[in-house]
Specification:
- This protein is mainly α.
- It has one domain (3-104): Orthogonal Bundle (Helix Hairpins), CATH 1.10.287.
- It has helices at 3-20, 26-51, 57-61, 65-85, 90-104.
- Helix 1 packs across helix 4 and helix 2 runs antiparallel to helix 4.
Amino acid sequence: MQITDLVTQYKEISQFLNSRWPLKNDEHRIFARTMKIMEELGELSDEILTSMNLQRNTKIAKFSQQNIEDEFADVLGSLILLGIELDIDVEQVMKRKLAFTRERFEMDSTDS
């Protein structure tokens, strides 16, 4: 799946979320999306700690790789939703940042 495909699907999700739980204005939606990222990042962090056996035994016993993957996907999805609210062209921004990073570290496109 390409970033463009993800954004297209998350635009539909964004429209649904905004109609199901309408907020007062754009600023409130941006704030809510930002807080959702923090929530999801906390859940991902929790799963990573569990994978490292740094949680209580009851959590460790329930650990699975799929939990980490699901929380990772939730973080990424929440970031895309925030990008939509901020009217960011996610694909273009990522291309620009990849080019910047490659240049910064003196990598060419064959150094993958």
